[in-house]
Amino acid sequence: MAKLNRDTVIAEALDLLDEVGLDAVSTRQLARRLGVEQPSLYWHFRKKEDLLSAMAEAAMAPHAAAPLPTPADDWRDWFAENTRGFRRTLLLRRDGARLHAGSMPAGTDLDRAMRKYEFLVAAGLPEPDVRAAMLATSRYTVGSVLEEQADADPGAGHEVAFDAGLALILDGLALRQRR
């Protein structure tokens, strides 16, 4: 086994998540997988909630690596694709939406969120509406993925339904922009 460090623990915890689901992830199982005693994990994470938070942040890495908007981008096209990318990232992990629910951006993720916010405001959208739309689409996406990941029929038209709901949010935001 590779040297035990924070990144190794997180990577193995995410693999465990994919195998057993969020409810079955335990520090006991994780320590066993890593070939260490359970207290060794506390060197890297003081409590399970800290580990889950780090897992949520790591699970969002594909979305965090997506390009930020540029002034030449159409705000609606960019916002739609950014939201779809968020959905795709949540779907990469078993229980990805549950893992992410309740997490808050910090550090670089918060800086990226502010850049997105500033792009939308610069595109002429009212600041209060940008805040509301970013929060609404985040919660809509997490809720949609929660339902999708709980559905026994993965081909149940979730993507089409998601895009229809997203279009409604974007249509409402476009109306607010014109006022």
UniProtKB/TrEMBL annotation:
SUPFAM superfamilies: Homeodomain-like, Tetracyclin repressor-like, C-terminal domain. InterPro entries: DNA-bd_HTH_TetR-type_CS, Homeodomain-like_sf, HTH-type_TetR-like_transc_reg, HTH_TetR, Repressor_TetR_C, Tet_transcr_reg_TetR, Tet_transcr_reg_TetR-rel_C_sf. Residues 26-45 bind DNA. Keywords: DNA-binding, Repressor, Transcription, Transcription regulation. It holds the Pfam family TetR_N. Residues 3-63 form the HTH tetR-type domain. This is TetR family transcriptional regulator.
